[in-house]
Amino acid sequence: MADVLVLVDHVDGGVRKPTLELLTLARRLGDPVAVHLGPGADAAAPTLAEYGAVRVLTADAPEFTEYLVVPKVDALRAAVEAVSPVAVLVPSSAEGKEIAARLALRLDSGLITDAVDVEAGDEGPIATQSVFAAAYTTRSRITSGTPVITVKPNSAAPEAAPAAGTVEPLEVTVTEGGGGTRVVSRAARESTGRPELTEAAIVVSGGRGVNGAENFSIIEELADSLGAAVGASRAAVDAGWYPHSSQVGQTGKSVSPQLYIAAGISGAIQHRAGMQTSKTIVAVNKDEEAPIFDLVDFGVVGDLFQVVPALTEEVRTRKG
Amino acid sequence: MSLRIVVCVKYVPDATGDRGFTDELTTDRESVDGLLSELDEYAVEQALQIAESADDAEITVLTMGPEDAGDALRKALSMGADKAVHVEDDDLHGTDVFGTSLVLARAIEKVGYDLVVCGMASTDGVMGVLPALLAERLGVPQVTLLSEVSVADGTVTGRRDNDAASEELSASLPAVVSVTDQSGEARYPSFKGIMAAKKKPVETLDLEDLEIEAEQVGLAGAWTAVEDATERPARTKGEIVTDEGEGAKQLASFLAERKFI
Ligand SMILES: Cc1cc2nc3c(=O)[nH]c(=O)nc-3n(C[C@H](O)[C@H](O)[C@H](O)COP(=O)(O)OP(=O)(O)OC[C@H]3O[C@@H](n4cnc5c(N)ncnc54)[C@H](O)[C@@H]3O)c2cc1C
Ligand SMILES: Nc1ncnc2c1ncn2[C@@H]1O[C@H](COP(=O)(O)O)[C@@H](O)[C@H]1O
What ipTM goes with this model? Predict the structure, then answer.
């Protein structure tokens, strides 16, 4: 069967969940061949094999961490030349999209970004995207070269399908000067101990109605009672109440959890763009006219300072 | 020597309007009012700040788009940019991101540049990859998705916040930069700015001026094809209750019914 390249997203060999989803989707198109760049390939290989990687191509060089984007494009291009895949799947992170775009340009290939599903078609892979703030769903195909597709987190349930996962070194010649953008320093983000926003099954978000950084603890407590991630509207982020890494919406994260709880959020189009595809949506807002109520499966018109803590109590009691 | 800054701005359909597709499955740019992409206002703002901190700088705003896209240029000029270039050609209809990057790269080279500043993404296509493609085509460093940026002594530095880490980046000019909506509120055009903008030069270029063949761009030159577009069924509004002391309990019961607790 034909090979499908999957670029591995990892932290020092700890494979992130979206990569397992990509391996699962890649199996619909052919045999997944994982490309692992940077340190930790030996630690990652067993996981990649478990989820279907027939081979794991690895390359490690200081340039991958010292320079932005370009060295990884060089490596992925080398992998394409070595394997001649039928498609290249890349995680839809900011970096992933930039890598994918530059790779596609070098290959004279078409590019699809932010796919939420990928399936095999007669004329190559067909990618589903959600556009215009999720008001439309489109299905597209790449008509030139080797299809390069970036796939959003949560697009498939990872399924194990053990394969050989043979580790093979990949020969890479990095562009001179690493492309010129030096990463002078890198400060890792502190972990909150809560689930990753884009991967969480439940997200509890607070907006301007939360009215202060100190009040976000009531959002966090509800989230913790449910094992959920915490999100925020841009109004809450711009006010400095919660970090930008937690922003949900057009210029923040897109989430598609099983359950989305919005507290004190009006439901502006740019916010909806990032949460509209959630399976179940509930909201607490004191304004019954708030547009968020048009989307909800269940809504409470009320003061979040009453309803949210009481809900946390209810959840805790019911869970025992 | 003067610092030559080119800011790429896009004219997009208003996100609060009813956006949709044409029969050819391209973005419908007729039935919804357009405007300068809000995310590109941040690019104009950062370019103005960089220019203000330089000894001598000149800002050219550049757009590729239909005639109406001139409105986006006027807005950027009224914010304080010095001159504008508008690439307009009937053959551009349906151009994808690769074609757009080709056109913009040629125009940027024609104008002459030390620094290109872009927004983080266009609010209609939302790919966020054009700046990286410009860097690839121009063969200069990409310093993208910055929430902070500054230029001094021929070097651009900035902070890029991503999921796992916050990174300090640095590159020599010439370079392509993109800035996020965390980079700082954009200024409003002043009355004086609006009046002054009317007199600022806007140059129009077509494909021939950029030595680009029609086949390289437009729908025909696109490397992707949309098979179909379906409107997502509107979410059906569920039960809404008013809290009279029981709201949390009712919500908890709903969540229990759906097996979340
Ligand atoms: C280019 C662009 C990109 C954007 N990107 C994003 C994005 O990524 N994410 C995003 O969220 N926004 C984004 N926005 C901003 C968006 O347009 C809205 O301004 C923002 O979402 C509003 O946040 P909010 O709902 O928290 O605040 P508001 O709209 O002010 O709503 C607050 C709500 O809280 C309710 N409330 C107040 N007090 C209480 C209380 N005690 N109990 C219960 N309810 C209460 C109010 O009734 C109101 O409905 C973007 C805008 C632009 C132009
Ligand atoms: N047609 C265009 N004309 C000028 N600049 C553009 C155009 N399209 C995109 N850009 C620039 O590229 C950035 C990213 O766009 P995109 O990759 O389309 O999301 C935008 O914020 C603009 O700065």
Answer: 0.93
